[in-house]
Amino acid sequence: MDQAKYDQMETMLHKLEDIKNSQESIIDKINHVITDLFQNPDKDLEKAMEDAHQKASDNVEKIAEATEEYQMKMNKLEQA
């Protein structure tokens, strides 16, 4: 594999990791809101935050899977 292609793929991996980190940050912020709701309960907001938490968690999982698959693809190309 030529260096330019490798560099592009490496950049893509960094972007995927950044997306995953952003989603994890969102989960952390949602958890703060959920914790705050113990002090000031609001069932509608709690439900919305639980749903948002689940979607963000699903996104982290999907991005992690995509990153792993992309890394394997990159490794195969590198060995060829």
Structure description:
The structure is a single chain. With 80 residues, this protein is an all-alpha fold. It has one domain. It contains 2 helices and no strands. Helix 1 (3-39) packs antiparallel against helix 2 (43-79). The longest helix has 37 residues, at 3-39. The radius of gyration is 18 Å and the shape is rod-shaped. It starts with a helix and ends with a helix. 2% of the residues are buried.
Order of helices and strands: HH
Helical proportion? over 70%
Structural domain count: 1
Query: Total helix count?
Result: 2
What general form does the structure show? rod-shaped
Number of strands: 0
* Structural class label: mainly alpha
Query: What Rg is obtained from the alpha carbons, in whole angstroms?
Result: 18 Å
Question: Unreliable segments (pLDDT under 50, ≥5 consecutive)?
Answer: none
* Terminal Cα span: 7 Å
Strand count, sense and closure of the main sheet? none
Mean of pLDDT: 95
Strand content: under 5%
Coiled coil: 49-80
Keywords: Coiled coil
Produce the secondary structure layout.
Blueprint: H1 3-39, H2 43-79
Helix pairs in contact: 1-2
Coiled coil: 49-80
Keywords: Coiled coil
